[in-house]
Amino acid sequence: MKKLFLVLFGLAVAGELLAMLTDFGPLHLICKPLIVLALGCYYRRAAPRPAALVLAALALSWLGDVLLLFQDGNALFFIGGLLAFLSAHGSYIGAYRGHQWAGPGLPAGRRALLALPIIGAGVALLTALYDHLGPLRLPVLGYAAVLVLMVLGALFRYGRTTPASFAWVTAGAGLFMVSDSVLALNKFLAPLPAAGFWIMLTYSTAQLCIVKGLLAHQPPGAMPA
Q: What is the phi/psi pair of residue 119, to 5°?
């Protein structure tokens, strides 16, 4: 059954990407809400003990997707979507902590080296957007801060989970940041070519990578000797 949900996820992503390329609104309305819904069902089937925070992150992402479907008609839908995804990132941060082994983790110096490029990218993006955010300046700044923390949370799992889990989750978190950056640049700075296609491609891939990565985590006792 879990494979069926993964196939449904793939079909929903393909339909959404086609809708973005052809600007076919009805297909967009059908496929976009199905993406995370199918992925959430897959996670529930694939995880021996589904984590509440992972389910919350997916449910909040689904809510954000639905709210953003109607953002063109009312700015409140955009703000609602922003808050939903902010909460989803917070849930993922908590989920990362629940999917890592106990211990000190990386030394402070190595954490700083890993953090600098991510923080720098976030600061550069906000610098480019700052004068264009208008009344959404504070919400966007807050969202960006939580997004950066989500990516850092993925990076700081290094050495505290399986290599596969670290790689999948880190790739997903990075793609999430790319997706949100393209969305922000397209919305606030200037329209980008095929922006909707690239936003949804990176976003759906990000969600899949994070879920696959969290499923790949194993307790220390389950690791092969």
A: -65, -40
